[in-house]
Hints:
The complex is a heterodimer.
Chain A: H1 6-18, H2 31-50, H3 52-56, H4 65-90, H5 96-104, H6 122-142, H7 148-176, H8 180-199, H9 211-216, H10 224-241, E1 253-254, E2 259-260, H11 267-274, H12 281-294, H13 296-314
Antiparallel strand pairs in A: 1-2
Helix pairs in contact in A: 2-4, 4-7, 6-7, 6-8, 6-10
Chain B: H1 11-33, H2 42-68, H3 74-79, H4 99-120, H5 126-153, H6 158-176, H7 185-190, H8 197-214, E1 221-224, E2 227-230, H9 245-255
Antiparallel strand pairs in B: 1-2
Helix pairs in contact in B: 1-2, 2-5, 4-5, 4-6, 4-8
Amino acid sequence: MPEKSYEARLAEFEAxxxxxxxxxxxxxxxxxxxxxxxxxISQHAHSEIVGQLPEGKWIPHAPGxxxxxxxxxxxxxxxxxxxxxxxxxxxxxxxxxxxxDELLTGKAKYSNVFNYPTPTWADxxxxxxxxxxxxxxxxxxLAQSSYGPYARAMKRICYEESFHIKQGYDxxxxxxxxxxxxxxxxxxxxxxxxxxxxxxxxxxDALSVHSQLALRWKIKTxxxxxxxxxxxxxxxxxxxxxxxxxxxxxxxxxxRTGHYRYTQPDWEELRRVVNGDGPCNAERLAARRKAHxxxxxxxxxxxxxxxxxxxxxxx
Amino acid sequence: MSLTIPSHIPLEHFKRFVLSMADDELVLGHRDxxxxxxxxxxxxxxxxxxxxxxxxxxxxxWYTMYMELGGPSPDEMGFLREWKDFRCxxxxxYPRGDFAYTVVRQYLFDVAxxxxxxxxxxxxxxxxxxxxxxxxxxxxxxxxxxxxxVERLGDATPESHERxxxxxxxxxxxxxxxxxxxxxxxxLVEAGAFVGNAALRSDWLKEVVxxxxxxxxxxxxxxxxxxxxxxxxxxxxxxxxxxLEYLKQLVDDMQQVYRLAxxxxx
Lengths: 315, 266
């Protein structure tokens, strides 16, 4: 039987996707699909790992047993999500080590939002509430992804992330009910995080180089603009209900469209931050490199021991 | 006071014993959490974050008992108390060091906790018995993990061996400080509340020395027939509140936010 042509395979692949079937690791897929997925999933994994740092900074200072325990648990979850996502990406033929190298050399990207500083305790609550809400909206969409391992990882991650939002919101409410100084910490943090959070869902689709293919092959099922609008519609009433405001006088509910209007973030800033020139990029990568270098002997020792044990077992 | 202990046990001494366990757990848990986001591999990042939560959770159990004996709330104990009023041993207060030191400290502590909790299973005080039962279940996982790492890192590569041996040499005399005698301890031993630190230390030595040895790591001891003779002096003082600056720094860090508005909620 003659080999099927690329066109025939592609047509079959797209038909499967359009029928709502999941693509699995051994299945045929276009190179572009594989590359796009590896890029997205590894960026996502890196975001979890780097994302441990801004909040992790506050673990030693978390006020009270409850906050201390939940914050460690939360940051631990991020490591777990990273692990899960690296494994999903590995099913596409790239090793964790390779991906890690790309992160540490600055070749790979990760979410813009983790390159901003966390100068106060309130940032922990705001990240859990705002940033994780934006993340969950995006990830709920990705749980419908056409690639099976990614969709399944997302499903589990979304489940845990919903606790992160509760954790963040609970921490914000405690401060909102507290002293004027505590309330001021929250307001200040909302102002600082508003635009970086809006940027998380990516540039407008017209500017996004990757969006078109990702949508066509249902790697993602909603456009960046749709995801961002969903976030704004969801979070603005919550922020105002607690008596805080967003730093955007044009953010009003539009009766006609049924959505909140909002001012577009500075897309040039997003480009700079994602490409390495944000307020904390150097600090974040330096922390990851330090951990990686200082842990090298452990990884080597464990690998050697594993090999020795296998040899003993085989003998 | 919602918890009562048998009247022949002096309350102050009993509370001191509970506090020493609570402070050990909180401070070590805090040190373990310093690896969250910074461990050599993701799996250990997750493991040490987990252990940190367990240790801090156990501290909470002991502080709750302390409160039920008429003490302040757990948050006040952890986040408002002066550092000099902590009663942890020096051992748990040292900086986290490299991963070898962390692993060795965790292992030596886990065994100490194991023998301490096992001893409490036959305590004359009901409350101690039931807490020990509960905590032992989690502690056995810690021990599996830390002992597994000691066994694998002890002789895997020349570098891992050298680092682990250095850690053992450093940590061993510090760890002996866990068993520093508490003021009034003899009353508790007499009343059967617990077996006493001298007995725990001897059980601990019997357990850790062979495991270290099997991992090609030398403890500073001499084996004499049935006995293990320790060749170094223990780092003591913590149980009497004579602490090192490390604890002051740690407590400052831990209380920094809470103290901004101690009467408020966080």
